[in-house]
Every structure is written in C-alpha cells, then in structure tokens.
C-alpha cells in the first residue's frame, strides 16, 4: 500500500485529536527566540512512525507567518516510491513565544504538540523535540550530520526523560546510501 507523507501526518494528528499537551517530566526550553529557529532543519534521528516510515533525507523548513504563527514544510524521500513527499502545516505558540512549546497542524482544526526540550542556546544548531507522548521524538540539526558527542548527549537526555532510544532510526541524507 502506498503511503503519502501528508496523509500519514494527518493520521498522526487525528489520532491525537488535538493533543497539545507536554509529556510529564518534559520541560520546554525557555528564552526561546523564534527568529533564530526559523529556516531548514535536518532530521538526524526519530522514533519510528507510519507517517515517516521508509523515508530518508527528511527536512523541516520553518518560516514566520504574518499572523505570528509559523509555516511548516516537512519533506522526505520515500524510498519505496523513489520520490519526495511534502506536508505543509502551521504552528502556533501554546504559551508565550519565548517558550519552545507549539501546537502544529497539518490538517486544521487538529493540532499536535511540538515541544523543544533541548536546544543549542548559542547557535541554534541542534534541537531535541517531543510530540504529545513519548512515542514521538526527533533529533534535529542545521546540517545533515551532527557531531557524535552532541548526538550522544541528546540521546542520553532523551533516554533519561523516558524515551525508548534503543528504537531510534537514524536518517540517511546521502542519496547514494
């Protein structure tokens, strides 16, 4: 069965029925600066989900909206179909714009939590993101490869906050692999 990126994203958020809560024990980053977070991020690792299954070269692009929200474009290469898929969404801050806690929708009016709970405060070069439950986890970087020490540290943080890091999938960004 052929799975489309946007349809799968829809299923994720429908299954959450607008679940925008922060998982217990996870603290969103504070002193968050949205302007520094905008732009392209590469997915380094994730927990497996049907909406990204079989995808490599996954990126997320964030751009500020006129209404204060954020436009989101998730893009990934579907290895089975040998083509890129895109999903377009919108994100809005749940609390203040200085807190890394947003709600994201790829199919309004349904939203899911996007919780940034680790972030390179100096350069905004890496981030650790959770969804509304511990079955959603992403390690993001501004570059297709992340320094091994930083990656290990982020995995350790995720493990220490209750994520099953043994099940992480490491995303390939090299089109020849």
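^ Assign residues to that structure.
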């Amino acid at each position: 069965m052929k799975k489309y990126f946007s349809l799968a994203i829809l299923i994720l958020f429908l299954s959450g029925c607008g679940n925008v809560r922060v998982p217990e024990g996870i603290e969103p980053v504070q002193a968050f600066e949205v302007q520094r977070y905008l732009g392209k991020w590469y997915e380094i690792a994730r927990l497996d989900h049907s909406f990204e299954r079989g995808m490599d070269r996954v990126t997320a692009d964030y751009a500020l909206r006129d209404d204060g929200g954020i436009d989101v474009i998730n893009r990934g290469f579907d290895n089975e179909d040998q083509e890129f898929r895109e999903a377009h969404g919108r994100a809005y801050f749940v609390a203040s714009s200085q807190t890394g806690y947003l709600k994201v929708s790829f199919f309004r009016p349904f939203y899911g939590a996007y919780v940034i709970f680790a972030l390179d405060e100096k350069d905004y070069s890496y981030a650790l993101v959770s969804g509304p439950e511990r079955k959603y986890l992403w390690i993001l970087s501004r570059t297709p490869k992340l320094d091994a020490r930083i990656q290990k540290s982020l995995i350790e943080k995720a493990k220490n906050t209750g994520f099953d890091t043994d099940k992480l999938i490491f995303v390939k960004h090299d089109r020849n692999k």
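The radius of gyration is 15 Å.
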